[in-house]
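Notes for week 9. Today we move from apo structures to complexes. The key idea is that a small molecule is not decoration. When we ask for a structure prediction with nicotinamide-adenine-dinucleotide present, the ligand SMILES becomes part of the input, just like the chain. The input block below holds both the sequence and the ligand string. Read it once before you look at the output, and try to guess where the molecule might sit.
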Amino acid sequence: MDGEMAVTMPGVVGVIGGGRMGAGIAQVFAAGGATVSVVESDDSAVAAARQRIADGLAKAAERGKLAEEPEVVLGRVTVFADLARLSPNADLVVEAVPERAEAKVDVLTRAESVVSENTVLASNTSSLSIAELGAALRGPGRFLGMHFFNPVPASKLVEVVTAPATRESVTGLVRGWVRALGKTDVVVRDSPGFATSRLGVLLGLEAIRMLEEGVADAKAIDDAMELGYRHPMGPLRSTDLVGLDVRLAIAEHLHSTLGERFAPPKLLRDKVAAGELGRKSGRGFYDWS
Ligand SMILES: NC(=O)c1ccc[n+]([C@@H]2O[C@H](COP(=O)([O-])OP(=O)(O)OC[C@H]3O[C@@H](n4cnc5c(N)ncnc54)[C@H](O)[C@@H]3O)[C@@H](O)[C@H]2O)c1
C-alpha cells in the first residue's frame, strides 16, 4: 500500500478556524503550493488569523524554511468569515475550531453542504471521537482525524485517526498529503487519547505520582527519562510546557473513558487550583519566571 501511495499536495485546501493550529495548518499547505481558504468567525478574527499566518511565514523565511518569498505564499491564502465561500472544489477541508463537539459538528455539517462529494473532511481534534463527529455527516466515509501538533510547521508528526466508517481510499489520500508536507503519518484507530495523548499523559501522571510519593525530585525524574531512555524531554518538564490545566482536562477525559489508571493525581489538581499551570503562568513543576 505504501508503495502505491501518491505523495502529492492537495491543490485546494479549506481550513476552518484560523487560531494557533488552523493558522499553522494553513501556512504549511500554502507553503507546499496549495491554494488555501481559511474561515474565521468574524471580521476581527479574520484579521487576527491573517496576521498569525503572515507572522508564521515570516518566521519560516527567517529560518530559511520557505522556498519562496513569504508574500508569494501569502498570496495563495484567503481568509474570510463566511463558510459558504469555501471552494466546492476543495480536495480537503480541515477544521481547527475550539475543542467542543457542537462547534465541530456545526462547521463540519455546514462545510459538507458546500463542498463536492470528493472533498475529504478532517478534524484536528485532540480528544473527541472521530466516529461520533462523523455520525453527524451525510457521508462519514470521507471523514477522519488529522491530528497536527503544535507548532504545526516544526512538528514532524500527524496522527491520522480513522473511524470504522472512514474509507480506506480516504486514509490513503490523507497519508500521501501528510508526506507531501514533509511530515510523518501514523494511522491510529479512533480511540480515546489516540496514540500520543494516551501514552504521553500516562507517563506524565505516573511522574506526578512519583513526585507525590517523594521517589525523587522533578529534575531527577526528568533526567532519568531523558538520559536513561533518551526521551528528548522528561514528563514533568513536558507537562509544564503543555500546561497543567490542559493535561488535567485530558486526564479527566481519559479517566472517564479508559479507567482508573488515568485518575488525575491530587498534586496535579492542587497545582491547577493554585494557578500553577506551567510555563504560561510562570510556575508548574519548575520555576519559569
Ligand atoms: N493548541 C494545541 O497544542 C493543539 C494541538 C493539537 C490539536 N489541537 C486542537 O486544535 C483545535 C484548535 O485549537 P487551537 O489551539 O488552534 O485553538 P484556538 O483557540 O487558538 O483557535 C480556534 C480558532 O477557531 C475560531 N473559531 C471559533 N468558532 C469558529 C467558527 N464557528 N468558525 C470558524 N472559526 C471559528 C476562533 O476564532 C479561533 O481563532 C482544537 O480542537 C484543539 O484541541 C490543539
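The chain has two domains: 12-189, 195-280.
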